[in-house]
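Exam revision sheet. Question 4 asks you to relate a sequence to its structure. Input first:
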Amino acid sequence: MVAAGLTLLLSSALAQSGPAPADPAPEGDPVLERRLLAETNEARRAHGLDPLVHDPGLARAARAHAAENAVRGVLDHGSPDPDRATVGMRVAEAGVALVEVGENLARMPGPEVAGPAVAGWLASPSHRRNLLNDAFSHVGFGTAVGADGTYVAQVFGARPLARAEAFADRTTEATVAWAIELDGPPGEETMTFLDERPAEAVVLGPDGRADLHLDVPAGTVPRLDLGVRVDDVTYRRSDRIVLDPDGWRRPGAIAPGSSRFAEARATPRTRTIVRFELRYLANGAALVLYADGTHRPDAEIEDGTARLSVPADQLPSELGVAILDGPSRARMVERFTVVPGDPPSLRPGRPSIVLEDAP
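Answer key, structure tokens:
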């Protein structure tokens, strides 16, 4: 490709998204990076798009990869290091938990870099899709001088939510373990709701029976509803009980012909739990929390904060935060690896898909 009279080599990639690397990333050329950002945003404004915001974490990933390519003398979205093989892995290594990321690369043999690089990206369909992707909101640049020119990395990220903090703590609590028996029509799909929040989905067996196990904090007397599935998002209540350790009780009538609570037994115990909390600056988006790729309806979602409590011996390996992107679709925003410890810690996670089904 020829741009502004210079031979311009380009490479592009779109991918989906550890702590920051132990080795500090190259410092880069801040003046050139600002010029690249200005040229990029001028192109986006010309196409009616919002400007991209400089992101320090994405810049760390871009600088490290530009430096590696300059040393190797290649334009490569991969890496000899298997832990840095994709742009998503490099972004996570740089301390960024974003899932939806993209990367453009270029090598400029002459003194003019910013303008020709952006012009070349715009002239290439794959690079243009990245640069003019309206889902991307943030960007980082890295540059490094090699034997055959200046190597440029442009790393994009979609950040529809601004995170305030993400952490975990460990605590010990007294609980009541409830063993509950259900019966009803064989194969009926049900959902239990603990104080009106989804707790566990249960399908009755061929004999019309199923077992359910729930832990609730000691000293509480929660209400447990049983709903029969109507469609993907709707359940019709068929039974309700109150979980009083001194004697569970049914405060109302049972819907005829539907599943019901047949028995409930309480056992006091003590357990160690881990509480995860992810706080975002509220922007009206509806959050959805995933653990190990599975939607967790038992997570507490309120005012931009997602909380999940799990037994310490049942830690998930990863957590994902998504926002509802339609009636039954969720767009994954950030993903974290759960690192065991006392307490466990959350680190930027691994590559993922952009869209996932949500119950």
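Marking note for examiners. DSSP finds five helices and 22 strands in the chain.
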